[in-house]
Amino acid sequence: MNPGGYAELAVTDAARLHALPDHLGEAEAVAMIGTGRTTLGILGFTELGPDSVALVPAAAGGIGTLLVQYAKNAGATVIGLAGGPAKTALVEANGADLAVDYKRPDWPEEVRAYLASLGRKATVVFDSVGGDTGRAAVDLLGKGGQHLVFGWSGAGLHDGEPLTFTEEELTARGITSRSVLGPVMIQKAGGDIRTLELAALDAASTGTLRPAVHRFPLADAAEAHRALENRGTTGKVVLIP
Q1: Residues 6+ apart with CB under 8 A from 37
Q2: pLDDT digits (tens, 9 = 90+) for 131-151
């Protein structure tokens, strides 16, 4: 893919193009090259299995949807947070063991009670939200837990800053916190982000991962932007010519 904005035509190196896999639509392929690639990159920083309890804020989003599916496929217990009943229903349909509406002020207590019923604590938080929601999610981590940061969409709603912790706080909690975007992700992928794109396309082609796509006609691009800003979308937003 090559940055082209809303240009009608764009030029790129042929080596950067991808063949459309069988049984995969164009919009789904676009989603996997973008959000799918990033999802697999994030997952390179943790190992998920039956002993894992994954907490996914923004679980109805493009990356969140794929994280829920991947974690469930790996045998993990999956808790997904989303805003409103319609979105939590999508999270549940994607396989989450518990789908919780983070707009409810008591959502941390609901998750904490669920974890207590299992005798468990969260082992990893996939945080793209930050702010108060992200901090409340981190409070649910047990000793040895991971806080993986790849965004802070909710920070502006509260303190206006990405969620960070001092070394003293992390040591006291017995957890780790790190940003997993940018150069560290590319390095983790062996220096070639295309390997993540190919793996993402393959996962979608075989049905291992199913991207959520929110389609808008290209003529409604302004409406698509408004919906994104107002959190009125689910999955990856794709403009259809």
Answers
A1: 193, 196, 197, 200
A2: 889 999 999 999 999 999 998
Where do the domains of the chain lie? 1-45+192-241, 48-179
User: For residue 79, what are the contacts with CB-CB under 8 A and spacing of at least 6?
Assistant: 53, 54, 55, 56, 96, 97, 98, 99, 100, 111, 114, 122
Separation CA 107–CA 100 (nearest Å): 7
Give the pLDDT confidence of 60-106 residue by residue, as tens digits: 999 999 999 999 999 999 999 999 999 999 999 999 999 999 999 99
Predicted TM-score of the model (pTM): 0.90
Quickly name the fold that domain 48-179 has: Rossmann fold (3.40.50)
Cβ proximity of 193 and 18 under 8 Å: no
CATH of 1-45+192-241, one of 3.30.70.790, 1.10.3720.10, 3.40.50.300, 3.90.180.10: 3.90.180.10
| Number of C-beta neighbours around residue 14 at 10 A | 5
Integer angstrom CA distances of residue 224 from 178, 229, 236 = 31, 9, 11
